[in-house]
Specification:
It is built from 5 helices and 13 strands. The protein is 29% helix and 42% strand. It comes from Streptomyces celluloflavus.
Amino acid sequence: MRALRVLLFVVVIFGALFVGADRLAVNFAENKAADKIRSSQGLDEPPNVTIKGFPFLTQVAGRTLEEVDADLGGIQARAAGRALRLDQLTAEFRDVELTSDYTSIKSAARATGDARITYADLTKAAGGDVTVSYGGEKNGSSQVKIAPKVAILSSLEVTGTVSAVNGNTVRLRVDKIPTVCAALPGCEAKVRAQTDHDWKLDQLPRNLKLERVVTSPDGIAISASGRNVALPGS
């Protein structure tokens, strides 16, 4: 019985040491990945990176990580000199393959992501003193209300649609020009110059595609997914 107790004690001690070493290794890997993403994306601060699955060391030995989650923070897209800021971009990478030298992440078999845009940021990106706010949903399309500035009209409000196109672009389009504006020469062109924009997101992880846009009173949510997705900095 004494020998069994000693054996159990040794097993517990070595198990605790292994767990401790495993956690130290995963923390080191998370920090290195965060630093690499920060430098490659030009971020002010390292993003939050979480490597899931236990034990980590055996995953590394097999050169495949179960899951890597990354909070990339805010990124920007530009169109005609106007920047659109995504307030938040988070992604979950599954079945992540490491490079042959174990020093970097090669790609993820599949990934999902979520991004958020505030109405304040969309208003700022539209420019020209335009105001963009929540507009509900119509026929499956996420809508916004847009109040452009047109000198020949004291006030004007139109309904627009926010959508994801080409997998990497956020599009804002006015749905219909009101009759009062359409009847005035040059009015429609002035309105559309303020309301119709495409913002291309060049900083998305490769093969991660924007898919669905949903508006809510709190902001605009965008979902994304992809296969064989490269993590930023890989």
